[in-house]
Amino acid sequence: MKKIVILGGGGFIGGHLGKRLKKEGYHVRICDIKKHEYFQHSEICDEFIVGDLTDPSVVKLVIEDGVDEVYQLAADMGGALYIFTGQHDADVMHNSATINLNVARECVLKKVGKVFYSSSACMYPEHNQLDPDNPNCEESSAYPANPDSEYGWEKLFSERLFLSYNRNYNLDVRIARFHNIFGPQGTWEGGKEKSPAAMCRKVAEENNNGNIEVWGNGKQTRSFLYIDECIEAVLRLMDSDFKYPVNIGSEEMVSINELAQMAIDISQKELSIMNLEGEEFYAKYGFKCPLGVKGRNSHNKLYKEKVGWEVSQPLIIGMQKTYQWVSEQVLKRKEAISI
Fold it and tell me: Which of 25, 180, 206, 338 is most buried, with most CB under 10 Å away?
């Protein structure tokens, strides 16, 4: 039986990955600083170790001799409110880099068969993402480097870290640059949630004939990939022999206003969008509106060439599933408060 270790398996993507691999009959060990909020451990793994992966002794405990595959998803991260205000930059860089330094070294020492590292589209240069209608996120555009956040710089550093371990120690690595992965059983409130979950929550919380806030003018563009397709893409990449960074995302680009309207349409509520920016935003929240780059969209040509698979599910299907789940969470919270 293949032995799998998922680092960060208490998070959104890691939990879904664990569920898929356990269902396929592998022995799955997860380590995270916290338990999964929505999955039972028996659903996603055979062993769940609660531990801080910035501690080398924890990594030594989790990654044993004989492990076939390690999926390194653990990071200090979140949505725009967490990443782009600048208030968490030191923790984001220190914690995530420390985890990756620990993991890369231990995987070599324990002779792990194959290692997956989850990078991010946030590592792409800001100057290639100023036009919301024509962003350039082709893998070859990564240099000269100029990410728009410290989170992106750390991801770029860690890509190079794992590639250097491949060159110097023959560590068999796979690296994916994720583009906004979303779906049920993930963070949907509290400041670390991504845009799809945030829009679904805002719509679910609002009464008919009300309005929802969208930060900025809403014309900034993104693409979003549903979690099931993300997991499929990761596993196919692991089965391939391609060892360099590659995008995993959807090429269906939408504006943030369009994403918000999609959530409204799914809910069948009569709601309007209120764009909040500039001094009005600052007066309400006390800091500059965190927007990220003006445009970002996955470029999937390299993945298709090297792995031979492509994303097929339209955004609306994933948003329907996500809205249903988020609205259930909102209802549960209201019921708990009323008790």
Answer: 180
- Considering the domain architecture, whether residues 47 and 114 belong to the same structural domain is answered as yes
135 in any annotated domain: yes
Closest CA to 128 of 107, 114, 108, 142: 142
For the chain, the domain total comes to 2
* Peptide bond preceding 245 in cis form (omega within 30 of 0): no
Tens-digit pLDDT profile for residues 192-243: 888 999 999 999 999 999 999 999 999 999 999 999 999 999 999 999 999 9
Same domain, 97 and 193: no
Query: Do 117 and 197 share a domain, yes or no?
Result: no
Q: Are residues 80 and 15 in the same domain?
A: yes
Query: What is the pLDDT, as a whole number, of residue 85?
Result: 66
CATH code (residue 168): 3.40.50.720
Catalytically annotated residues: 151
State pLDDT tens for residues 126-140.
999 999 999 999 999
Measured from the Cβ of residue 268, the count of other Cβ atoms closer than 10 Å reads: 7
Q: Which two tokens stand for residue 316?
A: 């609306």
Q: Measured between alpha carbons, how far is residue 318 from residues 20, 116, 164 in Å?
A: 18, 25, 36
